[in-house]
């Protein structure tokens, strides 16, 4: 369900989908996916509202997607044999993500 949250980082109200809840420093924070900015953000419980009217019918500006047929790779090091090979990985390395973002810029 889409709700409206106030993002402290963006200093504005955004549409969001709640992902999880955590208790932090005596208050509840919700991890939300901001559907118009394709970002994750933690929002305090008091900064969440129910959308009204036609606000729900506006199309999202950002969509979650993935690269077609592109699988993550990582460098596998074998210290005993002193070799390094590139092979499949379960998820993308942080360095690979940063490199890809720099290519997009």
Automatic annotation (TrEMBL):
Reaction(s) catalysed by this chain's protein: ATP + H2O = ADP + phosphate + H(+)
Tudor domain boundaries: 2-68
A GO MF label: ATP binding
Keyword entries, A-Z: ATP-binding, Helicase, Hydrolase, Nucleotide-binding, Repeat
Keyword Nucleotide-binding among record annotations: yes
Enzyme class: hydrolase
Pfam family, one: TUDOR
Gene Ontology biological process: germ-line stem cell division
EC number: 3.6.4.13
Domain of life: Eukaryota
Keyword Iron: no
Protein name: RNA helicase
Species for this entry: Xiphorhynchus elegans (elegant woodcreeper)
